[in-house]
Please model this.
Amino acid sequence: MPILGEDSGRPAAGQEARAALPREPSPGELFRVFFGISAVTVGGGYAMVPVIGRALEKRRWLDEDEFYRLFARAQSFPGPNAFTIALVAGGRLAGTRGAAAAAAGVVLPPFGALLLVGAALGRFGQLAPVRSFLAGAGATVPGLVAAMIWKIARKRSWTAARAAATLGLAAALALLPGLTLPVFLGAATILYLAERRWKS
Amino acid sequence: MEILSIAWAFFKVGIVSFGGGWSIVGLIKHEVVPRWLDDEGFRSLVAIAQSTPGPIALNAATLVGWERGGILGALLATGSVLAFPVLAVASAGFIASRLAARGRGLDQGALDEALRTATLAMMLMTLWTLRPASLDPLVLGLALASFALAAFTKLSPLWAILGAGAAKAAWDLLAGL
Model:
């Protein structure tokens, strides 16, 4: 039983197209592909997702259209993009075991790398030059967040209502730091209902 | 039990981690500063999380867990931030079929737009939470330079992080002479 039920919106035509593809990957192969990408791609989900798409396409496990359909669905789940696309694409290609294998492939390399970094920080983190380096690196954080916002905002299809909702929700989240969960989930529900109504 | 409260904190982060990455860094900060890390320590940790392989939210969870509870803490924090996403993906087919059975299919387009608005708001909150904490011209200059580099060039943000670290280390070294 795939992790996303059979009723997950894949048209019958998709199944025929799929039959033309060479073969289905085993969980072990999925693990190796996702592990390899996760181990060498720095910059999180935004950097990893296109690399994953190309890797699956190259092996002819998924074509580009289907990959981006799956990615669109993966984005409607919480969780790092690279992780949810691994769950969704792994599940689509090799069932629950495929999802688990692909997700483990994404998670394990950074986990190992960070244990090493953590150990190195514990050993050298108090040295003056290392502290200066870390302070300088930390100073880039607001700039990098702002750049990500800039890039996303430029591509967004804006309406006055969406702009007002974005700013209003941002203000509410900033003013009520202890209530992020209820504010976010409540707002997302209202926004969903509003978007559905605006369309019809 | 500090480790259990770390696990709980990251489980909550996982619930709203739509869009991954930067959108939840602000929430992670609310959860861990000043309980387990100070402001500057958190910023450094985020820079490290961004310049190592892997998703930033996951890396931040692993590092905080490690700082506070060694390997066990790292495992627990990482597992906790992923627990809700796994549950959500695993139950999606079931929930979708229940909704369909009641004749109320999920409107994927409306959901996408709603989540785009909500995650962009979360990123703005993150930006507000992580606005430069000092008026030190070097710190402000590094923030502006990294914005320009990440927003207007195709260079990896990794270079901004490494360059800023090296610049500050060199500056402090020269100032100390």
